[in-house]
Amino acid sequence: MSNSRLKPKEITAKVRPVSECDRSQDKATLQGFSRIWVNKDALILLTGGVESGKRCWVERTVPATPKDAASKDAAAEAALDTLRVSNHPVRRQALLSSLPGSKMPQNIVFMTEAYRKACGFHLGDIVTIKLDQDTAVPPAQLVEAEPLDEMGGDQEAAAWEGAAWFQLKRAGHVLPGLQIDCTVAGFKKTLRIQAVDSETDNVASFGENSTIRIRNASSLADGVPAAPRKLVVTGIPGLAAEEKKLNRFFRGFNTTFLHKGQQRSCGIVIHGGRGAGKSYVLDRIAATGWGKVFRIEENDKSSTVEDVFKQASAQRPSIILIDGLHTLIGKDRPNAGTITTKLGQQLDQLAEEAWKTNTLPKVLVVVSCLDYVTDVPLELQKLTRLERNFPLSIPNAQGRREILETLSGPLPPEDKDSMLTMLAQQTHAFNPSDLCRLMGHAVETLAERLDPLQEDPALEEVPFVRRGDLEQALRLTRPTAMHDVNLKPPTVHWQDVGGQEGLKKALRRMIALTTTTDPEVRKLILDPPKGLLLYGPPGCSKTLSAQAMATESGFNFFAVKGAELLNMYVGESERAVRQLFERARAASPSIIFFDEIDSIGGARGGGSGAGLNRSQGSVNMLTTLLTEMDGFEALTGVLILAATNRPEAMDPALLRPGRFDRVVYVGLPDLAGREAIFKMNLGRLRTAGDVDLSELARLSEGFSGAEIKQICSMASNRAIDAWLDGERSGEDSVIRMADVVEAVETLPRGVTNAMLDDYDRWARRFSKQI
Q: 3-state SS of 537-553?
């Protein structure tokens, strides 16, 4: 066999840009940058097949002329003067490929701009291409790089090495001369690869086991601000307690632990209702400037989630933000399970590193959702994953004042403080979003007042929002926390409840013991009151008294009928109960009022009353109610009121201490109570001088408060009928004593002696001393 037949085959071709054929092959991500593309026939000639990706040598034989380069790709090349001195030999490795389906001449080779710049080739160069004796691409062990500008010490260099590692990992290959642009904490820097495994003309694959080292690192360029060394979040108005908790968690990123395993997870969950400020808190964390910020969007795929974690791990310190986990892994997402698995795996890897190094890896993962229990899967609620969670509570008066200060808008300077204080006191249960809507409504009311026809009148001075505008805005704005389940009660005062002095006293004492801050009084309270059950005949002011308690206390009021929580779908009723209590906790101090509680609080076992034939769903909901009232989580700042006409149907577990601590019988009004109810209702109407309230109170014995109100309404109707029939006119059109007495004699009593006896028997068994 002759020597000519042993000589490797080669082809000669002219360099042209890849973009002439397919721009997608010259991506900014550097993927495929080390490939060169030849005609399919040329590939077969060189390799004996059509397989791409084999290693080859590219050597320049005839340099390009300035005219040739300028006519083809002058904008992409270096200055033309460079070409005049580029006669030095260039011999570099590349990966040989062909473009499928392309009709390219056999004497043309396509090169990416990144490859040409790294190796020194220019458009128009004539090159010789031949296959390497070892066509396999070896993995890179050590990649050495240098910064094109000054860099700080070892700590800064390590951050840039991580960023460069990710860029090369995504590119898949590396060769000397390659320039890569990196970003760390918002700052950009360009690095040039000097050598790959001590060689300067080779190409190698870059993978998990590859290492990059930056040489000649001295100091950062003057004038470039350094990223903050400590992770601290500030400037969250209205959420001072939450800000303090977050910074306590962030200490793990700023120091070494005293004890091994003191803190494992790099991730936290911030949860709260809509408008609670979750996105704002995430933005404040991103604004710390501690690390490069990566965001996982709600429509991202599982592969994207994994890539973001790898990128963040390579460019430490870094922050990964997931705003809306409930959407990212929602039930309608077909890949929700895969995304959940990927999140868990990435967090576990970070936790394992924390265990080994006794400090948290500088990769912070912050997740937001509406509800931690329901939106975060159980497999993510682990110590090494997303076990730490911070609920965003509804701000108190001081917090609302801080938020309103940032949203004050066009308020008169002389009255600004008093107006903001007034708003802060009157916006119970308003979250930050609600306060923003409130101020928007105030400005809209101002515009409507100044310009009801929406014209453009000339204003001599800047208009300010008045108190009337704010009051109108308060009427138009309903707090989010009070949405759906919550019913805002009518304004009812104690004087609007006729009689029932014992009940009023019990309710007043409950409020006083809950709100007192007197340290001496607190020493007298063993357990703050929690629940109060009102039972008795219908129409005896149980619901009215609860409304008056809400008005007089100023607490946020959540009123629901027991039947409203029942749902045909499995688990939904229990979820409704949990959400109700969660909202009440967030809006504390608050009152939850269960009307007709026997519909959900009936006895579970066999026997009489509601205990018969109770569905499993009703039993589960009752169990949830029992747990929420007196479970592992303290019910602080929330009072439970309930009313029932059927106390014998109640489950005994609801009546034990720690749940309904007090049981109050609300019976028929006594003589003084009946007179007070007549006075309250007839006092609003025109009555004759012969109306004797004391006599009416005597005649109406056995009537409930609601029935006495009905008597007054019937008497009013009789007076109106007499006026319509012409029997009365002018000043004679009044309600007479005879009208009221006739109504008393006509209306039947709804509460029987048998009913009262039943209440008395039950009271002897279950009532508690008030």
A: CCCCCHHHHHHHHHHHH
Q: Say if residues 660 and 555 touch (Cβ distance below 8 Å).
A: no
Indicate if the alpha-carbon torsion angle 545, 547, 548, 553 is positive or negative: positive
Residues 163-189 as b/e (b if ≥16 CB within 10 A, e otherwise) read: bbbbbbbebbbbbbbbebebebbebeb
Residues 6+ apart with CB under 8 A from 275: 431, 432, 433, 434, 480
Report CA 286 to chain centroid distance, whole Å.
Answer: 15
| Domains detected in the chain | 7-131 (2.40.40.20), 142-214 (3.10.330.10), 240-391 (3.40.50.300), 397-482 (1.10.8.60), 494-665 (3.40.50.300), 671-750 (1.10.8.60)
Query: What pLDDT score was predicted for residue 70?
Result: 45
Retrieve residue 207's tokens.
């993978």
**What's the whole-number average pLDDT of the chain?**
79
pLDDT of residue 203: 94
* Residue 481: φ, ψ to 5°: -65, -20
Tokens read off for 634: 């303290």
Residue among 107, 95, 101 nearest 42 (CA): 107
What whole-number distance in Å separates Cα of residue 668 and Cα of residue 540?
6
Give the whole-angstrom CA distance, residue 191 versus residue 182: 8
Closest CA to 390 of 241, 260, 531, 516: 241
Q: Of 131, 127, 132, which is closest to residue 109 (Cα–Cα)?
A: 127
Asked whether residue 94 carries a pLDDT value surpassing 90, the answer given is: yes
Q: Which amino acid is at 312?
A: A
Q: What are phi and psi of 216, to 5 degrees?
A: 60, 35
Q: Which pLDDT does position 583 carry in this prediction? A: 74
What does the block give as tokens for 224?
A: 């470039």
- Please report the pLDDT score of residue 507 as a whole number: 79
Question: Does residue 657 have a cis peptide bond before it, meaning omega lies within 30 degrees of 0?
Answer: no
More confident residue, 489 or 443: 443
Sign (positive or negative) of CA dihedral 63, 69, 71, 73: positive
3-state secondary structure of 463: coil
Cβ–Cβ under 8 Å, residues 70 and 83: no
- Of the spans 26-30, 338-342, 472-476, 647-651, which averages the highest pLDDT? 338-342
Is residue 131 helix, strand or coil?
strand
Residue 644: helix, strand or coil by DSSP? Answer: strand
- Asked if 621 contacts 565 with a C-beta cutoff of 8 angstroms, the reply is yes
Report how far residue 535's alpha carbon sits from residue 644's, in angstroms, rounded to the nearest whole number.
5
Tell me, what DSSP letter sits at residue 199? Answer: B
Find the Cα–Cα–Cα–Cα dihedral 660, 662, 663, 666, rounded to 10°.
Answer: -130
Q: Which of 88-97, 144-153, 412-421, 475-484 has the lowest mean pLDDT?
A: 475-484
Whole-angstrom distance, CA of residue 535 vs CA of residue 436: 42
Of 215-229, 599-613, 636-650, the range with the lowest mean pLDDT is: 215-229
pLDDT at 61: 84
391-436 confidence digits (pLDDT tens): 887 787 788 888 888 876 678 878 888 888 888 877 877 888 888 8
- Report whether the peptide linkage leading into residue 589 is cis, meaning its omega lies within 30 degrees of zero: yes
Of 515, 535, 534, nearest to 525 (Cα)?
A: 515
Residue 733 is encoded by which pair of tokens? 């059109």
Separation of alpha carbons 639 and 628, rounded Å: 12
Which of 210, 67, 229 shows the shortest CA–CA distance to 155?
A: 229
* Alpha-carbon gap, residue 574 to 138, rounded angstroms: 60
Provide the sign of the torsion angle of the four alpha carbons 562, 564, 569, 574, taken in this order. Answer: negative
Distance, CA of 431 to chain centre: 13
User: Could you give the maximum distance between any two Cα atoms of the chain, in Å?
Assistant: 140
Give the integer Cα–Cα distance in Å for 735 and 715. 7
The more confidently predicted of residues 138 and 460 is 138
- Banded pLDDT at 219 (limits 50, 70, 90): very low
Strand 211-214 and strand 318-323: pairing?
unpaired
